[in-house]
Amino acid sequence: MNIAVLGTGIVGRTLASRLNELGHAVAMGTREAANPTAAEWLASVGTARGARVGTFAEAAAHGDVIVNATSGAASIAALKLAGERNLAGKVLLDVANPLDMSHGLPPSLSVVNTDSLAEQIQRSFPDVLVVKSLNTVSAEIMAFPNRLPEESQMFVAGNDPEAKATVADLLHAFGWRSILDLGGIEAARGMEMYVMLWVSLRVVQGTNTFNIRLVRG
Amino acid sequence: MNIAVLGTGIVGRTLASRLNELGHAVAMGTREAANPTAAEWLASVGTARGARVGTFAEAAAHGDVIVNATSGAASIAALKLAGERNLAGKVLLDVANPLDMSHGLPPSLSVVNTDSLAEQIQRSFPDVLVVKSLNTVSAEIMAFPNRLPEESQMFVAGNDPEAKATVADLLHAFGWRSILDLGGIEAARGMEMYVMLWVSLRVVQGTNTFNIRLVRG
User: Fold this and answer.
1) Partner-chain residue, chosen from B180, B183, B193, that has the shortest CB–CB distance to A196
2) Chain A nearest C-alpha distance from B52 (Å)
3) Which one of A189, A204, A212 has the shortest CB-CB distance to B196?
4) HEC string for A129-196
5) Can you give the pTM of this predicted structure?
6) CA distance A98 to A192
7) Domain B2-205 adopts which CATH fold?
8) Using the beta-carbon criterion (under 8 Å), do B180 and A194 form an inter-chain contact?
9) Residue in B151, B204, B216 nearest the CB of A207
10) Is there a contact between B204 and A180 if contact means CB atoms under 8 Å apart?
11) pLDDT tens for residues A145-171?
């Protein structure tokens, strides 16, 4: 599949490498075409499987599926640069969190409670099939859930069942087994708000390498 | 131990009964002394172990530990009625969630993100040793964690280590084994915000009888 990964942070690089490893033709999208981090990423994976780098718009034009791995605060602007016509009708997997570090620690969320980043994206781009997922774990666990000693839980939320099935296929390929559909895109609120608990858990455990598993009676 | 449970909802009744069963002298506190739900509760447990009902103030005066099981929207007012001098220097286990149903479903939180109900209570009653816990599960699981087939996770947050140890002792008696101290009372933000995810999970699973277990790499 042709996949665009927007963002060159640890999440973008990890997902782009994993998708490349799984055989997809990955375009990493950046604000400026000449991005040294993106160039380094491309050098690390090579071009044998069609990997490439480009602007947000070039990457989005390439992708059948778009992964939003930009920082939450920059996501809407990045997607505007990607361009509505390059996104329309496509599945957008939104893994970003609207973390606001401007007030120091602990972070807060820049959109919360009665709205979410995923809903903002869906409203800004009504023709895009937005699916929220993966934002509840670190980059490493997103791409390699099997590094945890027990099966753990991943969530998806979005308005389009087929788009969620497309995302679930990608997640399965990463190694996710237990994927729970939480419903429409408004369920992204809980997924994003959980991240405030995740931040506490990271601090007290001293590691990013964890997730939650549902235990049912 | 003398324990006050403020609130007669399912959470208050379940915790009051469980604490009574474990041998504590439980006073259930209500806004009006003549509360039929409280009277029913008292009839169900009997007075052999010192169980009683009374106003918020009477119950708080009785308790060495106070459990806030009122609805989040009513908690500060209930604690004011309980009276600062009946609360001062005591451990207050805050199990409430600031759920706001006034906009319909899904609910939102009336305090969130850069503040929490537990912090509001701590600021309103600076001489009280507020500990947030149990708010992340249903009443049944709060009191009977062993009804889940696997060990699952409980959290505590608060500024006073001894108060957290007192709460942890009560939780152990309920059956909780894995109790993670998330730090100061500001960690209640994440614990309360998680409840938005919990609400989604309850809806899609069709049950309250679940919790999360941490899986670490």
Assistant:
1) B193
2) 32
3) A189
4) EEEEECCCCCHHHHHCHHHCCCCCEEEEEECCHHHHHHHHHHHHHHCCCEEEECCCHHHHHHHHHHHH
5) 0.98
6) 8
7) Rossmann fold (3.40.50)
8) no
9) B216
10) yes
11) 999 999 999 999 999 999 999 999 999
- The two structure tokens encoding residue B209: 């009888």
Closest CB from B153, B189, B199 relative to A196: B189
List of chain A residues whose C-beta atoms are within 8 Å of the C-beta of residue B119: none
pLDDT surpassing 90 at residue A138: yes
Structure tokens, A18? 């994993």
The pLDDT-based confidence of B105 (bands split at 50, 70, 90) is confident
> Using the beta-carbon criterion (under 8 Å), do B106 and A149 form an inter-chain contact?
no
- Does the CA dihedral A118-A204-B72-B143 come out positive or negative? positive
Question: Cis ω on the peptide bond leading into residue B98 (within 30° of 0)?
Answer: no
Chain B contacts of A153, Cβ < 8 Å? 212
Give the closest residue to B148 by CA, choosing from A213, A195, A180.
A213
Distance, in Å, from the CA atom of B112 to the CA atom of B54, rounded to the nearest integer, reads 32
Distance CA B86, CA B80 (A): 10
Query: Tens of pLDDT along A36-77?
Result: 999 999 999 999 999 999 999 999 999 999 999 999 999 999
In chain B, domain spans: 2-205
Q: Residue B33 above 90 pLDDT?
A: no
CB A178 within 8 A of CB B171: no
Tell me the chain B residues in contact with residue A112 when contact means C-beta distances shorter than 8 Å.
Answer: 112-113, 193
pLDDT of residue A105: 84
